[in-house]
Amino acid sequence: MDLLVVVPHPDDEVFGAGGTLIEYAERGLETGLITLTKGEAGRTLGLCDPQDLGAFRAEELRRAVEVLKIGHFELYDFPNARPAAAAEGEARGAGFEVNRGVADHPEIVDLLVQRFENLKPRAIITFPPNGINGHVDHVATSRWVSAAVAQYGGPLKLFYYAPPTPYPGHEEGYLPPTHQRIIPLHVLAQKLRAMAQHRTQALSVLGFMERSAERLAKETFHLVGYQGELQSELL
């Protein structure tokens, strides 16, 4: 496999790497996605009952995967933690009050090692150690992926999502971009279609557009261990 994205939630794949996934697939490269939870602690926006949110978001993700032209897709059912700054009083799925999400499941490391050995990715994209916004699932996923890469030991590049500037309040541990990709217009249109499949995440999509509109057409990453000038291609 050429490029594998490993993230905790449905929609984590599209904001930071959607255009890259589409463009590389169109070039004939093999792309993959591993999503660790079904996002059952997110918002429902009245589109489904809270207890059905995980299944609902799984279907949203499957539709997005098709638009993103992802060749290999795995969805797991580890618990989704509630964001620390989640607004009170919103309809949310079950389970987030009694667990810390993927942080409570270190066995994910062994799972990922096995998947890396099977898929043999040339490059992996995941969240940086500070999770960008401090979300406990983002932070834990970064930790488990990094540990699995170290145990795997195979030749690969490990990339982190890397916004051009730190997320407000999360400057500590920020890693700047080493790679920047400008997304062509026809690919951007498909990326926006993929974002639109995540209907329950409409408020998150709008928030992203308000906060980081430039990142719709400019995807930036930090290559672990790289020191040098800003590059454009991951592979």
Automatic annotation (TrEMBL):
<dbReference type="GO" id="GO:0016811">
    <property type="term" value="F:hydrolase activity, acting on carbon-nitrogen (but not peptide) bonds, in linear amides"/>
</dbReference>
<keyword id="KW-0378">Hydrolase</keyword>
<dbReference type="Pfam" id="PF02585">
    <property type="entry name" value="PIG-L"/>
</dbReference>
<protein>
    <submittedName>
        <fullName>Putative N-acetyl-alpha-D-glucosaminyl L-malate deacetylase 2</fullName>
        <ecNumber>3.5.1.-</ecNumber>
    </submittedName>
</protein>
<dbReference type="InterPro" id="IPR003737">
    <property type="entry name" value="GlcNAc_PI_deacetylase-related"/>
</dbReference>
<dbReference type="InterPro" id="IPR024078">
    <property type="entry name" value="LmbE-like_dom_sf"/>
</dbReference>
